[in-house]
Amino acid sequence: MKTKRRDDRRAAWWFLLPVLVGFAVFYGYPAIRGAWYSVTDYTMLNQPSFVGADNYTELARDGEFWHSLLVTVWYVVLNIGSQTLLALGVASLMHRLTRSTVLRAALLLPWLVPNVTVGLLWMWLLDTNLGFVNHLLTSLGVGPVGFLTDATWAMPSVAAINTWAYTGYTALLLYAGMLQIPQYLYESAAIDGANEWRMFRRITLPLLRPVLALVLVVSLIGSFQIFDTIAVTTFGGPVSATRVIYYFIYEQAFRYFHMGYAAAAAICLALILGVLTAIQMRLLRASRSDLA
Amino acid sequence: MIRRSRAGAALLSLAMAAGLAGLAACSGDDSGDGADGAVTLDYWLWDDNQKASYQACADAFHTSNPNITVRITQSAWDQYWQNLTTQLAAGEAPDVWTNQGSYYPQFVTSGQILDLQPYVKADNVDLSQYQGGLADLFVKDDARYGLPKDWDTMALVFNTDHLKAQGVDAASLKDLTWNPTDGGTFEQLIAKATVDAKGKNGLDPAFDKSKIKTFGFLPEFKDGSQGQNGWGNFAASLGFTYLDKNPWGTQYKYDDPRLAQVIDWYKSLIAKGYSPALDKASTLANDALMNAGKGAITITGSWMINSYLGDTAKVKFAFAPLPAGPQGRKSAINGLSDAIWTGTEHKDEAWKWVKFLASPDCQNIVGGNAVVFPALKDASEKALDAHKAKGRDVQAFIDEASAPGGTFFLPITDHGSEVSQIVQDAIQSAVLGQTDSASALKKANDQVNALFK
């Protein structure tokens, strides 16, 4: 019995090996190197030399860094808020009304378009002078709106673009979670006279929690990493209204070649995400299902 | 948002593993000596319009130097500098590459560019044959980090049919004046060229500035620290200079009140409805807007000649010289160079190629193709003739370049890309009305100069 278990474990390691090697080469080693660079003055063209915590103290004093964090949080609130609510709504509708495969496939379509294409598409649609959306608005007598060029509108617009792109996918995950909920619960609730809204609140939401937690964690981390849409549409502008943390890191690393400084900012972001994930998992008691 | 494998995620690991990235992107190390002494040189440039011309140069070069083959790699501007820096970091850089003023200082500072002065001296290259001052742009402390390959100046570009419809005689555009107070005859032209939805122009009392069909003037506010496509030229015509000395100054002068005056004039155009407000401006480039009939006049560089006068233009355009300011007409002039990597194994062959690129043999080929103006004065004339042969009037660019005192050089210093972002943000925040021009520029100037301490 005992040896059998050990054999199983050995076999498991063999199966895990390819993933572990990939992880070590593409994540582990770069992460260690990144941590090292974050305490150096590396610029790609020099021999990195140790500068202690200089990069970190400078980050703490750098208004742009704090601004970029703030802007990122604003994006996350807008994006996760709208996307999760919409996805929950869409998933519930699919769950309770129709289980059409065609509909599910259609929902996924925006998610299948590469991010850069999504960005370019909406950049043209939302353009103030030549865009279709503003053409419609103007013919309705409403303004042209500088969706991507007005400091107030730029971030909500970027958030809306990504909400458009990812709601379908999120809804599909939530829908899969809803399929796990036993049908008889709804049937008995219906017999007891509960309406749909009550069933949603009392049955769907609590039982969906583990899935919802996972979806929230993954989408929150993804949301913090917003980059490509901004790199295509606003370039962090107007002024710095959409200069999110990833764009800040990108500029420091690949425009100014402050690799050490960028690595320090990246490490800070990793720490923030770690803490957030821990809090979130705890709050949502992710591992425990109310079904058990 | 849940996202698939993305540039974003890749970037984090990239930022952390910049060294690895260099290894992954491989330009090939097969540029070594062949058995028969044959050498392959890697040469990089970013402009796809120019690739064919330089390929023709490379072929001519190979004919006279059969043992040297030049392999040209072209990549778009945005990727070009990232790729180049990564390759330099990895020790795999091209033997020769095209340089630009705001990027090359960092390569000089990090010792990546070969000093050409000893070669220039040994081979007696005549530096006076180039357009005035171009050769000196790439000199630091008596070392020479490149030979000039081309130049560009700026001019007005306008929609000819639109101006004609507004009753403007195209010939009158040759003698425009400008000042920051009332904008001179240039602003009158802009007003006349601005047309609202009812067809009234900016001079008409019934003009409705809230419903503009065609803006008289399209400004460029994504213009870095130089304002090459706009404000820099006006500021220079007021006597503004960027730096204590150029190239290689260490003290910028963005707090000069004359620059703030120019920005205020731009803001006044927006307030009058002659130019689109920055927060309602297009994310698309000005040439796209000009082609869509959304703008009547803008400022452009000679590298855009083929876009405006070429077959792809949807509207008929023509060029006119920039308006003359209180200190006369001033156009930014910018030059590119070819540089040799210090790490190349084929220094002598690379020098032969660079010398060839800077010689009439190559520059006449480039000029004859009428894509850019080559650095050699004679070759520039060839380019002008080639344009004329195609029925294109590009005299404005040449006149500005040859007028005494008619041009100024863009700043060449360390920290170019940081300066660019700081100043651009400051100007945009002033134009958006988040702060006034003078204090935005003062603050930016302090930030910029702090980089040099």
From TrEMBL, chain A:
Family: Belongs to the binding-protein-dependent transport system permease family.
Membrane spanning stretches: 12-32, 73-93, 105-125, 164-186, 207-227, 256-279
Protein name: Carbohydrate ABC transporter membrane protein 1, CUT1 family
The entry's keywords: Cell membrane, Membrane, Transmembrane, Transmembrane helix, Transport
Topology of the protein relative to the lipid bilayer: Multi-pass membrane protein
Keyword flag Transport: yes
Database matches in Pfam families: BPD_transp_1
GO biological process, alphabetically ordered: transmembrane transport
A cellular component term, taken from the record's GO annotations: plasma membrane
Residue ranges occupied by any ABC transmembrane type-1 domain in the UniProt entry: 65-280
Organism: Asanoa ishikariensis
Localisation: Cell membrane
Automatic annotation (TrEMBL), chain B:
GO terms under cellular component: cell envelope
Top-level division of the source organism's lineage: Bacteria
Subcellular location: Cell envelope
Keyword flag Transport: yes
Keywords of this entry: Signal, Transport
Signal peptide: 1-24
Similarity comment: family membership: Belongs to the bacterial solute-binding protein 1 family.
PANTHER family cross-referenced by the UniProt entry: ARABINOSE-BINDING PROTEIN-RELATED, SN-GLYCEROL-3-PHOSPHATE-BINDING PERIPLASMIC PROTEIN UGPB
Protein name per its UniProtKB record: Carbohydrate ABC transporter substrate-binding protein, CUT1 family
Organism of this sequence: Asanoa ishikariensis
